Amino acid sequence: MRSSIISILLCLVIVLCVNCNSKQSNSETHIVEIRQMKFVPAKIEVAPGDSVKWINRDIVAHNVAEETDNLWKSTELQNGDTYTIEIKGKASYLCTIHPVMKGKVILKK
């Protein structure tokens, strides 16, 4: 009887430890297309921890770079290439190859 109780308690501890370590993710991945020399949509609203995935659908190469503090920057993206990052804060971004191309990531409250 005592060994059964110990076995049950041990199983319960293992289950609790596994559940405590499993991270439930409610994060989303938002898509921004690069086409006709624009980011579409140019402004998106995301929750902290969400990701943004840029997809180059244009015939020329582009990149995506955080504009204010240079916190992140993609490599050169050819047609069909993608770049994904997890958003940790609001950001203004641009294509450094074509600096007139700009966009914004806004955090939901």
From TrEMBL:
SUPFAM superfamilies, per the entry: Cupredoxins
Entries under InterPro entries matching the protein: BlueCu_1, Cupredoxin, ET_Amicyanin
A Pfam family this chain is assigned to: Copper-bind
Molecular function terms from GO: copper ion binding; electron transfer activity
Domain of life assignment: Bacteria
Keyword flag rRNA-binding: no
Blue (type 1) copper domain boundaries: 32-108
Swiss-Prot/TrEMBL keywords: Copper, Metal-binding, Signal
Endpoints of the signal sequence: 1-27
The name this protein goes by in its record: Cupredoxin-like domain-containing protein
Organism (species): Fodinibius sediminis
